[in-house]
């Protein structure tokens, strides 16, 4: 059985740099693990025919996390209806509606892993009227039926601003509501196709209003061409929504077809953003080159409630 403090962690970030990219600095080199825990977790996911964003998005922490029996469930299929410039998850037209038995399969896999903290994310399903909110809610409920003590964090899309979908999801009472801003407003059209900066801010604000006691969380990638002032202004915008947790990590290009890395952000710069973010009022700021929005999620949730 897994440790009671395992975390399902990881999300949509790439692993490899494309052709002609800058040499990767030493602080971004990771060792890919493949020990018994990694193999066992892979068997569990495949047994229940589940997707993980760790695999689909080529997360750089996958070897470390899986070897510690941690991963992120990605529901609503493996095809995203959007084609963002940074994301390695396949895009296109999903085949068929969401699978209604998926929440129970996720819950059974979580039980097999002995989890106390689960993170569930998804592709965008703009083909669905509710954007997949119903399946999210059912997944939260299914995990709690099997594992009453397990906390559940959800990393959700924007539902195209269909706020009844957000209301449906928040009624299921996730322990943390995460929605990633991803980048600064100037870069949205190039980086995050189909998304609207102001709409994502509104989602974070509405989530706080719907459930004031549920911590809200968001993350951004750095290294896509944003300036320091743009990052700080975006952080202030996010803090103004009452958001509890902020994560900042380095963008890594999945392959040559995705946006190039404009620069590698030094760990000292991440440390400065962490300090300034805490001064802005965030309960917790996780910042570093390899940080992804659900990395160390258990500790982040505890910090947000302290």
Can you say what the CATH homologous superfamily is? Aldolase class I
Cα end-to-end separation? 29 Å
Radius of gyration: 18 Å
* Largest β-sheet summary: 8 strands, mixed
* Overall spatial form: globular
Strand content: 5-15%
Percent of residues in helical segments? 25-40%
- SS-based structural class? alpha/beta
Trace the largest sheet across and list its strands.
1-2-3-4-5-6-7-8
In DSSP terms (H or I, runs of 4 or more residues), the helix count works out at 11
SSE pattern: HEHHEHEHEHEHHEHEHEH
- Unreliable segments (pLDDT under 50, ≥5 consecutive)? 1-20
CATH class call? Alpha Beta
* Count of domain modules: 1
CATH topology, by name, is: TIM Barrel
Give a short synopsis of this structure.
With 306 residues, the protein is α/β, with parallel strands linked by helices. It has a single domain, classed as TIM Barrel (Alpha-Beta Barrel).
């Amino acid at each position: 059985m897994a440790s009671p403090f395992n975390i399902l962690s990881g999300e949509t970030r790439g692993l490899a740099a494309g052709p002609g990219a800058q040499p990767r600095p030493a602080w971004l080199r990771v060792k890919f693990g493949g020990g018994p825990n990694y193999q066992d977790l892979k068997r569990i996911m495949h047994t229940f025919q589940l997707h993980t964003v760790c695999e689909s998005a080529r997360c750089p922490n996958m070897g470390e996390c899986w070897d510690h029996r941690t991963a992120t469930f990605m529901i609503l299929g493996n095809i995203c209806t959007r084609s963002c410039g940074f994301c390695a998850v396949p895009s296109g037209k999903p085949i068929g509606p969401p699978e209604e038995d998926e929440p129970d399969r996720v819950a059974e896999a979580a039980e097999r892993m002995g989890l106390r903290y689960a993170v569930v994310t998804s592709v965008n399903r703009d083909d669905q009227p509710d954007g997949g909110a119903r399946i999210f809610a059912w997944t939260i409920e299914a995990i709690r039926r099997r594992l009453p003590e397990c906390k559940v964090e959800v990393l959700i899309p924007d539902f195209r601003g269909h706020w009844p979908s957000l209301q449906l999801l928040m009624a299921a009472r996730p322990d943390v509501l995460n929605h990633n801003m991803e980048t600064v407003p100037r870069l949205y059209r190039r980086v995050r196709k189909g998304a609207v900066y102001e709409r994502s801010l509104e989602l974070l604000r509405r989530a706080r209003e719907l459930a004031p006691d549920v911590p809200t969380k968001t993350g951004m990638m750095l290294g896509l061409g944003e300036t320091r002032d743009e990052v700080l202004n975006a952080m202030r915008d996010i803090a103004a929504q009452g958001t509890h947790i902020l994560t900042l990590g380095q963008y890594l290009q999945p392959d040559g077809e995705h946006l190039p890395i404009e620069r590698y952000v030094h760990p000292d710069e991440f440390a400065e953003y962490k300090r300034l973010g805490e001064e802005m009022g965030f309960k917790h700021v996780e910042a570093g080159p390899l940080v992804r929005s659900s990395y160390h999620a258990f500790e982040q949730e505890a910090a947000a409630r302290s």
